[in-house]
Automatic annotation (TrEMBL), chains A, B, C:
PANTHER family: 3-KETOSTEROID-9-ALPHA-MONOOXYGENASE, OXYGENASE COMPONENT, IRON-SULFUR DOMAIN CONTAINING PROTEIN. Keywords: 2Fe-2S, Iron, Iron-sulfur, Metal-binding, Oxidoreductase. This is Rieske (2Fe-2S) protein. The lineage of its organism: Bacteria, Pseudomonadati, Pseudomonadota, Alphaproteobacteria, Sphingomonadales. Its EC number is 1.14.13.82. SUPFAM superfamilies: Bet v1-like (SSF55961), ISP domain (SSF50022). InterPro entries: Cholesterol_7-desaturase (IPR050584), Rieske_2Fe-2S (IPR017941), Rieske_2Fe-2S_sf (IPR036922), VanA_C_cat (IPR044043). It is an enzyme of class 1 (oxidoreductase). The keyword Iron applies. It comes from the Bacteria. It comes from Sphingobium indicum BiD32. GO terms for molecular function: 2 iron, 2 sulfur cluster binding; metal ion binding; vanillate monooxygenase activity.
Length: 325, 325, 325
């Protein structure tokens, strides 16, 4: 299987033992895509052109037309681990790969521990830079317009968020006291006329993940557990003009293993995010036309987006080779 | 409604009162196309993404997520007026917009005054620079070959034009005495065997408009009004590789309000101009391949085209910011 | 008829007398493709736009809208000859065109003299640089993998070639003694169980032609003529990202004029070379992504390919204008 990631073609496969492996998808000999080849001998990849074989570490193991394998015959291997049902790849300096950088999903799992979410919903492909999607979810004021009548009653745009930054995590919190069941609360199965307190938390783990958490408390029934939903979204750059949008969702209501309500939510989200796709792709197109003359006047609701841009720029600067004076 | 004009995306709409408005089609906030939004409050445009509103002057009137609107939050507004059934946009320095530059259509209206033409025929989209279309109509010798047997009897190529230049107008006149009704005269409803004097005038208003005027006089019947047709054609650049070809036509024969003969003429012209489209697009493709090594040997029939090129270059030079010494 | 050759659009036609002519496919006037025009007066080409006519030498012969033809009104004429059933074009300095550079097909014709081959099989269009196809046929070790089970029994990859270079010809020879009829020998109509000696010769005439020759000798029947097949393949660059693959084949078995066996071979070859097309186009795509960072570690089986690259680079260097010191 081949994926474009950060502009590189990457081949993903699993060894016989099931370990996930990521290699640059270009044979070291003549750049033939290894992803068109096959797995041989349990964990090697055989190039389909001249049959040259590479191990999971990228080193050449066999050249059919000769004895011996030159040391330089190797493809780049990328550190890759599977955590919290996602695959995490590190495409920078392999020495700097650090599993501790992977967001601890317990922080936003309301429910079942490690395997907390109920369903990985889907992947959508966007023809825009992944930053535009981050900015989309970091300014929820768009929900009242782009998704008018679909996801809230207009209150997101008029309720400012409290923003907290810790390390590479931007947390934006909105809280509404004394609400009555609205269209959004109903998707949590809350009965009409119930008095609720709603909390919306958007946590962005720069650069990879955004998590939308929503829960409803019941002031008239303090014993009752809050109804909670947590939706981690991974935005993965393909190129600087395209990316993947992975969506998962977990909740503490509905039936096990996957409530029909949650699946319906997944479909509703898909439709809603098609609007985000239209908007971010139209903006990417405009950016491409405008180039350096792109307008960019920010408003107060852009606080999260601005912080994201700054943090991403800092992270990228740190990755650049250091020049000593 | 959105149009590409001179490489910019422009949104066109009308206020509640009907005034035509042209704004740059990029929201000042994040470049979202305003043309995907809607008109609110009679004359404002609301961005579909975060609901920011702009007036017909391009200034921001409302930001839903906050009070107040920063001064810089504005989009470019282009001077736009409606004259002679066309919309005229000025995309240069707004200070220099001057309605007096709009060609006075009375100059080539044979018939009914301001609202002189009978029918706006159609728009065709060409994948070439608009200059190639101007050069097409400025050298009518092509009619005898590209449109062989369709529009004249071969005499256009062998009858040199008298060329007069006044201001930004190039006028080329051809005159044939003592003709008998030919295939072209028949399209004016002139009976077989009639002796006629034909005049063909092509007026080019650099850079926007070309007008083809044709009329037949009747030397054997001096009382009889000449049969006349006037076809203004507007060539509007989209990008440097594409343009629109707007065609209208007026005549003093046929029935009111629009003669079936004129409509048939429109269809015949459409088919004929499809050949021009093939030719100019093939030339654009050749120019793109050849780049700086494009051949370009001119002949005497190119006099009008050469004058057009020169005049256009001068107009563009005048638009460039002046550097004082 | 128009073809792209070395990035130029070339018009090919025959005079009334049948002589093949190649002209640059851009009218000297306004770059209109002459290939959309028609042949007039036996050997002239008439531009379809304004009717300007050019002779087989590229010089202008007639301009309908005026008397006289300016000296500069000419299109480039390329030396073109027909030899051995192919058309050979010379696109460099016409002074250097030399028919002696055309490979003498008698050198690889086993059979019938000048008109030796039985059938020109087909043309396939590849979206890659022509060098990638040369390298494909110069390293036949790929046959054992890319065409696994289709064309040999795996022995090509393990049998090193003897390589000889003479002038611009690279000859690679492989020989197998004491074989029994295998799947490949069967395509020559050799009966099961026959002991054979197989010789495979690949001759590359840099830059235009590769010839695959295969023959089987019969050690148990020295009187019997060897079964022979010769397949000249012409790789013609269209642009630096595309080329034509012309395939012909001759043999001394099967029935005259063209054996059904040979035609079946042609279809089998077409299918097999579709795999080469997939591989070389995938590599071209990879090269385009990777640019200067393209991996390129060679193995011993690349000897022929490396020699080809070097020889082609030398030929191109010789074509460059010389700068005297």
């Amino acid at each position: 299987m081949a994926r474009f990631l950060l502009g590189e073609r990457v081949m993903l496969y699993r060894t016989e033992a099931g370990a996930p492996i990521a290699l640059a998808d270009y044979c070291a000999h003549r750049a033939m895509p290894l992803s068109k080849g096959k797995r041989v001998g349990g964990d090697r990849i055989q190039c389909p052109y001249h049959g040259i074989e590479f191990g999971p570490d990228g080193h050449c193991r066999h050249i059919p037309s000769q004895k011996g394998t030159p040391q330089q015959m190797r493809v780049q291997a990328y550190p890759l681990v599977q955590r919290w049902n996602w695959l995490w790849i590190w495409m920078g300096d392999p020495e700097l790969a650090d599993e501790a950088l992977i967001p601890n999903h317990a922080d936003f799992s309301f429910v079942d521990g490690n395997d907390f979410w109920k369903v990985a919903l889907w992947r959508m492909d966007f023809a825009c830079n992944f930053q535009l999607i981050h900015e989309n979810v970091l300014d929820v004021s768009h929900v009242s317009f782009l998704h008018e009548g679909l996801a809230d009653s207009g209150s997101l745009v008029t309720t400012p968020a409290k923003t907290v930054v810790e390390g590479n995590v931007i947390t934006m919190t909105r809280r509404w006291e004394d609400l009555l069941t609205d269209r959004y609360a109903k998707t949590f199965g809350i009965a009409d006329g119930t008095r609720v307190i709603r909390t919306n938390i958007a946590k962005t783990y720069v650069p990879s993940l955004n998590v939308a958490m929503n829960f409803f408390e019941f002031p008239d029934d303090p014993e009752k557990a809050p109804a909670m939903r947590s939706a981690p979204m991974a935005f993965t750059p393909e190129t600087d003009q395209s990316c993947h949008y992975f969506m998962a969702v977990g909740a503490n209501y509905g039936e096990e293993p996957v409530g029909a309500a949650l699946e319906a939510q997944g479909q509703a989200l898909w439709n809603l995010i098609l609007d985000d796709k239209d908007a971010t792709e139209a903006i990417q197109e405009a950016y491409n036309i405008l180039g350096a003359s792109t307008p960019d006047v920010s408003v107060r609701a852009d606080e999260g987006a601005i912080r994201f841009r700054r943090m991403l720029a800092e992270q990228m600067a740190r990755e650049l080779p250091q020049v000593s004076s």
